[in-house]
Amino acid sequence: MRASIRIVLTAACLICGIAAFAKAFAGEEKMLRGTVSKVSDGDTIHFDDAASGETLKIRMVGIDAPEAHLPIPGGGPMVGQGKWGDAATAALERLTPVGTKVVLQDLGLDKYGRTLGRYFYRGRDVNLQMVRLGQAVPYVICDGPSCDRDFFEREKVEDYLKACDEARAAGRGLFNPAHPLREMPYEFRLRMQKRTPDKFVGDFADRSLHEPTEIRAVDVCRRIFFLKREYATRLGFHF
Questions:
Q1: Is the model's pLDDT at 211 over the cut of 80?
Q2: Reported pTM
Q3: How far apart are the first and last CA of the chain?
Q4: Which of 8, 89, 150, 162 gives a 20 to 30 Å CA spacing to 69?
Q5: Has residue 49 been placed in a domain?
Q6: CB 100 within 8 A of CB 36
């Protein structure tokens, strides 16, 4: 009898473990409540978690804002994209000034130790708002386990790409025809940090796939980045 109970308990633990792994693999997030304590630039804030008291540096997922203060190899003064970086920072400060209470969707850490997240103010996706204002462009990265069949829906990819198109059509922010941003943040970082492009680039509209060096072959409002070719082909993108 005791042996049977042990078998049942062991099986139950295995099932729970498998379920937990599946949730982690699928990228299940946690929601945190807290306060904006600093706006660093157009896609980075500091967030004070109400429950733990911890301050998290948040890299806002799904978007890329013009650089305000980018470190470069060898040290020296940081570089930025001038008025576009300043405008993006100011826009985010207006949306959620320091002291604003928000809800953070915590999506884990990036390789720099920052928390990746999407945050909400009064139920509105602030990341998405930055794209709508033309103060950031979509920056969708399919990076491995998250690249499952629900990836595009889960990441609200169509919403972000549509917001980009609308901002450009209206001439907002970095799409202002009087002084448009000529070099997107991703390309600026590559050039200033003397890095070689390493992400494959997909076109969300026609599912075409391009080499990392062919980034300009894909419209900025349709780009999907893939760390590996197989991640792209898994989702129906092909050369």
A1: yes
A2: 0.87
A3: 60
A4: 162
A5: yes
A6: yes
